[in-house]
Amino acid sequence: MNNSSNSAAKSYAIIGFGKIGRALAKAFARKGIQVAVATTRTPESITSEAAAIGTGIIPATLADAIKADVIFLAVRFESHQDVAKALPNWQGKIIVDVTNAYGVPPEKLRGLPSAQFVAQAFTGGKLVKGFNHLGAAILEQDPAVHGGRRAVFLASDNDNACAEITALAEALGFAPVKLGGLSEGGLLVHAHGNTWGQLIFQDLVKFKS
C-alpha cells in the first residue's frame, strides 16, 4: 500500500510521555512503526516505560526528537511554547497538535481557535490538529473495533500536511476524518474556557460502506 510506504519513509517523534503520549506510543508499537519519545526529563528516566510498550519506542532528548519529520505535541497546552522554543524555525516539519486548551480563557488565546494559537508558536511548521478528541484510555486501545476502525479527526490549513497525517493515521489502523481548516472544522475539536468542541470525547467507529 502506498500509504504505508509513505509513512515508513518518514521519521516520527512524540513530545510528552504522559497518558496521551503513551497511548500514541502504543498505537505506533502495535503497527511496528518506530517513534522517538521525549520529555523534559532525561531519556534514561523513561527507558523502562518505553521498553514495556515496544522495542520501536525510542527514548530521546528533546533536541534529538525534534529532528523528526513529524512531531506529535502531546504536552500540556501551557507547555507548547516551551517546545516551540527548541527550534528557531520549524520549516519542513509537521506538528500534530494533540493538546487541549480546556480551562484556558478565550482571551488568552486572543480569540483564536487553540490550534491556530499553537501554530503561531511553531514558525515555519505545518500544523495538523488531531488525535486529541479521545481520552487516553480509549486512544490506547486497538482501533480495530467490531470490524470497523476508530475515527480520528484531523484539521489543518495545509492540505499536504493533512494528507500525510491522514496516511499515517490509516497506517496506524485508524479511520481519519478530515474536518477542514483550523478555523472551521478545527473548532469541532477545540476546547477553551469551560467549553469542549462538539466532537471531543465522541468515540466513533467507521465501517466500510
UniProtKB/TrEMBL annotation:
Q: Quick one: signal sequence residues?
A: none
Mind listing the UniProt keywords for this protein, alphabetically? Oxidoreductase
Q: Which Pfam families match?
A: F420_oxidored
Q: Which residues form the Pyrroline-5-carboxylate reductase catalytic N-terminal domain?
A: 12-100
Q: What InterPro entries does UniProt report for this protein, alphabetically? A: NAD(P)-bd_dom_sf, P5C_Rdtase_cat_N, STEAP_metalloreductase
This chain's protein is named NAD(P)-binding domain-containing protein
User: What is the originating organism of this protein?
Assistant: Mucilaginibacter sabulilitoris
Which lineage ranks, top first, belong to the organism behind this chain? Answer: Bacteria, Pseudomonadati, Bacteroidota, Sphingobacteriia, Sphingobacteriales
